Amino acid sequence: MQSLRLILRNRRYLAPAWVFASLNIVVGTWALYIPTVKDKLGIDDGALGLALLAFSIGLLVTIPVSTAIIRWIGLGRTTIIAICAFSLAMLGPVLATSLASLCGLLFVAGTMASLTDIGMNALVSELEKEDEQNFMSAAHGFFSMGGVIGAGIGSLIIGWFTAPVWHMAAVAIFIVSTNLYLCGAYRDRVSAEAEQGDGGFKIGLLRPLLGLAVLSFMIMGSEGAIEHWSKLYMLDIVKIPSDQLASFGFVAFSITMMLGRFWGDGISSRFGPLKIIMGGTLLASLGFVAVLSEVYGVALLGFALVGLGFSVIIPELFRLAGKTKGVSSSEGIAVVAGLGYVGFLGSPALLGFLSSISSLRLSFMVLLGFALGAFLITAFLKQRAG
Predict the structure, then answer these.
(1) How far are the Cα atoms of 69, 150, 329 from residue 129, in angstroms, in the given order?
(2) d(C-alpha 33, C-alpha 245), whole Å
(3) How many structural domains is the chain composed of?
(4) Domain containing 124: what range?
(5) What does the pLDDT average to over 135-161?
(6) Short-list 36, 57, 87, 34, CA closest to 228
(7) pTM value surpassing 0.90
(8) Which pLDDT tens digit goes with each residue over 353-370?
């Protein structure tokens, strides 16, 4: 919890951590209205998956040019512009009138989400190096906290709004105003690594980072899938009739992930990253088994266990990437984070296609397979490391 106290007591650390929270507040609120948009447009799970894939494509096309954008605008300005633009861009999808417009609007939002992701992680990484502080896990805890705020509080106040766009607009106003207030702590920051042309996504770096990149893809892919599909799973598979009750699967997942990440920095120093990742993947596997029970209370517990298991994995992967031999820390984080965000935004589309073939139960069985596969990959990496 020391890293959490560090963030809360110092605006220098709170400002970038709040960007993490802001990103997921917007995504968590959008997730509440995915069933509404699906019904409004009269599309099936496969078509919805295609729309979510457009979001991923927006992410992908932005990664290769992100370093040039940061060099041109500056790391701080890129981050504040991107998070504000993203919150405003997400007004579009709830107003979409066709599948084509939904895809186009999500593509645009994806580009802004990508710049936000890269900017906020680069800010935290540079501050950790400069100040010799360790708060990456706690910063990701703020991301999970954003999910609790967006989906949890959002599900409680959803009845206050006559249309989804008013809810999204209220969130956008909140995100823009709070980030503009805090951004003075980093707004004028210029990344030294970006100036030197480092930190870009380079395919040639995949070889030494392949194991970590695959783990990042699988774990963040599972996180993205739960964020986008957990409510529909509760409605369609667990057969929960209430929109509010159906939302609490993701809320339980986000709460335990948030708490785990706030404690993660201390746990990491005690047990080491690979042991934590192995334990986390096993706990998440047990959680997915509970989710597949199709009993509401057991499924809620399952989502909570998955969140706790996943909570510290991504921050540990980022740390390992930054220490990989022959790779600079910025390059390592860029590759592992880049592949992770591809998974985070691409997996919802994959689950949509699987659901259209069978059902969302099959999709969540695949997520169980991902968790077990991640355990085996980590065990191999640990054995190789000696």
Answers:
(1) 22, 31, 10
(2) 14
(3) 1
(4) 2-385
(5) 86
(6) 34
(7) no
(8) 888 787 888 989 999 999
